[in-house]
Amino acid sequence: MLPNQQQTTRLARIQQSFFNLPIWVQIWMMFILGPINLASLAFLNQPSGNLIAALAISGMVITVGIVIVAGKFSKIAAAGHILPWTHLMWILVFARPEGSPIYQTFLTVLLVLNGISLAFDFNDLRIWFGSKR
Question: What domain count does the chain have?
Answer without folding.
Answer: 1
